[in-house]
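Re: iron/sulfur cluster structure - here you go.
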Amino acid sequence: MSQITVNLKVWRQASPGDAGRLVDYRVDGISRDMSFLEMLDVVNDGLIRKGDEPIAFDSDCREGICGACGMMIDGIPHGPNRATTTCQLHMRHFRDGQTVTIEPFRARAFPVLRDLIVDRAALDQIIESGGFISANTGSAPEANMIPIPKPVQELSMDAAECIGCGACVAACPNGSAMLFTGAKVTHLGLLPQGQPERLRRVGVMVARMDLEGFGGCTNFGECHEACPKEISIDTITRMNRDFLRAGLPSGRAAVAQSD
Ligand code: SF4
Ligand code: FES
């Protein structure tokens, strides 16, 4: 069967202050080759033709790199497939006649703006607090001047794969952003360019994480399971280690020097 019918239960919420509710939609003639977002486009075409409000959802690249398209599909961030963003999830993974519940990410730090769209600016605030290196401007230095061992470079680049989607936060019973923050701290903290601010960075990013209302980590591991980029939970260990070092007298001296 090349086409299927799905019965959707979609969270509709007109504004942040609205109570919101699940609304049923039956969608016929869905190609199995469509992505989940293309299926929602079809639903919205039908709603617009009837003069109804289309379902608001976020998307941009639609190829798994921007992190915009996160939503809960049957209670799982980005849906049932491992290491797959919502935009890369295809309808061939759903049965004909299946009921699918679609909700926004649920977390204290991610207020719902409308329907399936949440405000993920809190993640940007964490990045803004310390997710950078300071480098002198001017022409780019010769790349081979800073040799980086391949295993270190690979660990750093694996962490840099984080697309900031927030699925880790949505999956965590504590609404913690430790995997996201750990990925950023690891990415920069492993490279030579990230060393001067390494301990200062971890302190300010963790403080910002708390300030933005994210919860703490109690080792559920759901974040790693939900992550479409399979960011390793070791990044959290690495961040915790740097955070402890930053609190030691030698760490405090290093932080003072980098200020
Ligand atoms: S760690 Fe994974 S789940 Fe969390 S924001 Fe980054 S890519 Fe998304
Ligand atoms: S729309 Fe960019 S990751 Fe899905």
